[in-house]
């Protein structure tokens, strides 16, 4: 096996992608990996074959899963990405979208020592700015449900903005500017048959698309 310190960033990227797709309860297949990473299905097929030989993934038919070694690598990368997002937003004041992009670079170069120091400076956070759990932290799962499951008049607290929404162009900026942030409270003022809805947060009415409302996680 290859030592974790010798991993190519592409291996880390793929392990992270598989981990996050599974975290979002999405079936992990080559087409979905290709879509998330913006690469061809042929490239995914070649990479999965290499990763299988390296002992990082198991490909059973169309489904792909991480081995224990692949899971460990994925958790390390995801942990560093989410700590970096925290540092970039909480300490440096970057926007959600900018922090997400920069953390994608930082996750591959943060050392063990820097990771420990960042965690200490940040006060051992349990989630990234979007509410997604940091692997290895003391995060406690909440009984969150998709916003779309609630009805008009329901009050809610935003819990998580899943990774799938982080990869949707422009959406992170919209959510941050609209105060649809973890911990913020709101109320549903209107629901529509097409899945769109209007919510009131901080006295402002915001329209939420069906795509976003079915994925934003809240506690009622």
How would you summarize what this structure contains?
It is built from nine helices and eight strands.
Supply database-style keywords.
220 residues; alpha+beta; Arc Repressor Mutant, subunit A; SH3 type barrels; six-stranded antiparallel beta sheet; two-stranded antiparallel ribbon; 9 helices; 8 strands; globular; disordered N terminus
What does this structure look like?
The protein has 220 residues and is α+β, with helices and mostly antiparallel strands. Among the domains are: 4-71, Winged helix-like DNA-binding domain superfamily/Winged helix DNA-binding domain (Arc Repressor Mutant, subunit A, Orthogonal Bundle), CATH 1.10.10; 145-219, Ferrous iron transport protein A (FeoA) (SH3 type barrels). 44% of the residues lie in helices and 16% in strands. It has 9 helices and 8 strands. The strands form 2 sheets. A 6-stranded antiparallel β-sheet has the order 3-8-4-5-6-7. Strand 5 and strand 6 form a beta hairpin. The longest helix has 24 residues, at 68-91. It starts with 8 loop residues before the first helix and ends with a strand. Mean pLDDT is 92; it is low at 1-5.
């Amino acid at each position: 096996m290859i030592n974790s310190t010798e991993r190519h960033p592409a291996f880390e990227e793929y392990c992270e992608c598989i981990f996050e797709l599974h975290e979002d309860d999405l079936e992990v297949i080559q087409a979905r990996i290709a879509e998330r990473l913006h690469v061809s299905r042929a490239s995914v097929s070649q990479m999965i074959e290499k990763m299988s030989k390296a002992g990082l993934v198991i490909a059973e038919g169309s489904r792909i899963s991480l081995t224990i070694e692949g899971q460990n690598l994925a958790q390390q990368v995801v942990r560093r990405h989410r700590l970096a997002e925290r540092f970039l937003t909480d300490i440096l004041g970057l926007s959600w979208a900018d922090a997400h992009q920069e953390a994608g670079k930082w996750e591959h170069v943060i050392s063990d020592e820097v990771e420990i120091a960042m965690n200490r400076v940040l006060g051992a956070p349990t989630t990234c700015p979007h509410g997604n759990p940091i692997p290895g932290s003391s995060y406690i799962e909440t009984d969150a449900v998709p916003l779309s499951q609630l009805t008009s008049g329901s009050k809610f607290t935003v819990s998580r903005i899943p990774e799938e929404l982080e990869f949707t162009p422009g959406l992170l900026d919209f959510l941050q500017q609209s105060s649809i942030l973890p911990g913020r409270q709101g109320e549903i003022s209107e629901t529509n048959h097409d899945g769109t809805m209007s919510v009131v947060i901080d006295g402002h009415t915001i329209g939420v698309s069906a795509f976003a409302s079915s994925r934003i996680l809240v506690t009622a």
